[in-house]
Design goal:
Structural class: mainly alpha
Strand order of the largest sheet: 1-2
Order of helices and strands: HHHEEHHEEEEEHHHHEHHHH
Shape: globular
Number of strands: 8
CATH topology: ABC transporter involved in vitamin B12 uptake, BtuC
Radius of gyration: 22 Å
Helix content: over 70%
Number of domains: 1
CATH class: Mainly Alpha
Strand content: under 5%
Largest sheet: 2 strands, antiparallel
Number of helices: 13
């Protein structure tokens, strides 16, 4: 009894420290766009795109990290969400639906395409699954690029412009306004919207990971045959992984179209799929905080390098000697190689995966 009573103050102090940490993180996230905005609104836009990549990475993490299904065509669901918003909220078809009508349609269509991708690939694993999903992503992009004849649906390679921004009644996120005596720009409004949706996605992922479905995904990832022998319906569980991951891609795509005001097939290339996969692998597959870290690093650091490389070369050599894009890709590739060599489980791996890799390495 004495030991139990002694533990109560410690438990209360730990809970108080946890709430204090949450409050400090919340305050930092609340003022972050205004702090970054002092360097220019362009950096706030970069932060917004980083949040979009966080949502994409969390969606792909369900497929790759939780269920162990290698998907190289994930960007297709991003495209489905973006074009759903573009077609239902632009002058292209003369339709201007509100966000609460478009978002459910985008999520439903992305889920449907996720099931359509998962259904024919249920028996595929590893490289074969990667090739099929890669082909699926390219097929979606090519369709979007060519669905302008004989009936103009997507406007082909020219894309769709003048897309409606995210709007709640008369309150639009596209222009600056003064709220409570504080001037809030369009990118700053989108930041708070994206932050709220990202936190919701994180909450859903955490709940899924700790649920029976999450444990079933983990069982399939470790040994599908053993999982099936234990009574897990591997077909339905794998289809659910594809559908849930695709739904997050659909949300991110819809917000991308609303924020950008323009979409074209060029935004949904294979390189984008590979970038999102690299974010998941770099941060730590199957570990939600690690995936968030990987997405933020690979979304923000390249833009930071782009802003630094040119002035640095001009200061040292008086001219731009090396192309900034080339240097960015070189450093990107070097970082991935170093991570795979020295931290194969990712920068912030889950404890379970770290133990598995350590045990495998020790056995070898």
């Amino acid at each position: 009894m004495t030991t139990y009573r002694n533990q109560l103050p410690h438990a209360g102090a730990a809970r108080w420290r946890a709430w204090l940490g949450v409050a400090l993180i919340g305050a930092a996230l609340a003022v972050l766009p205004f702090v970054i905005g002092m360097a220019g609104q362009g950096w706030v836009r970069i932060l917004n795109y980083a949040l979009l990549y966080v949502m994409l990475s969390l969606g792909l993490n369900i497929v790759v990290g939780f269920a162990g299904l290698l998907d190289l065509g994930y960007i297709a669901f991003y495209a489905v969400g973006a074009y759903t918003w573009a077609l239902l909220a632009s002058p292209h078809f003369g339709v201007h639906l509100p966000f609460w009508a478009i978002l459910p349609v985008g999520i439903a269509l992305a889920c449907l395409f996720g099931v359509l991708l998962g259904a024919p690939t249920l028996k595929l694993r590893g490289d074969y699954l990667a090739i099929v999903t890669l082909g699926f992503g390219e097929i979606i992009r090519i369709f979007l690029n060519n669905l302008n004849a004989p009936v103009n649906i997507t406007n082909g390679p020219q894309g769709i412009n003048r897309i409606d921004p995210f709007r709640i009644g008369d309150f639009t996120f596209a222009r600056a306004e003064t709220l409570f005596g504080i001037r809030v720009t369009g990118p700053e409004k989108y930041y708070y919207l994206l932050l709220v949706l990202t936190l919701l996605v994180v909450a859903v992922c955490v709940r899924l990971q700790d649920s029976r479905i999450g444990r079933a995904w983990e069982a399939i990832r470790e040994d599908e045959i053993a999982a099936k022998a234990m009574g897990i319906n591997t077909r339905n569980i794998k289809l659910l992984a594809f559908a849930m991951g695709a739904s997050f891609g659909g949300i991110a795509g819809a917000l991308f179209a609303a924020m950008q005001g323009f979409v074209s097939p060029e935004s949904f290339s294979l390189m984008e799929s590979i970038s999102v996969l690299c974010m998941v692998v770099l941060g730590g597959m199957g570990h939600i905080p690690g995936v968030i870290l990987g997405a933020l690093l690979l979304a923000v650091l390249p833009e930071f390098l782009r802003a630094v490389v040119v002035p640095l070369q001009q200061m040292l050599f008086g001219a731009v000697v090396l192309d900034p894009e080339g240097i960015r890709m070189l450093l990107f590739g070097l970082a991935m190689v170093l991570v795979m060599l020295f931290r194969p489980a990712g920068l912030w791996p889950s404890a379970v995966r770290k133990r598995e890799l350590a045990r495998t390495g020790g056995a070898a």
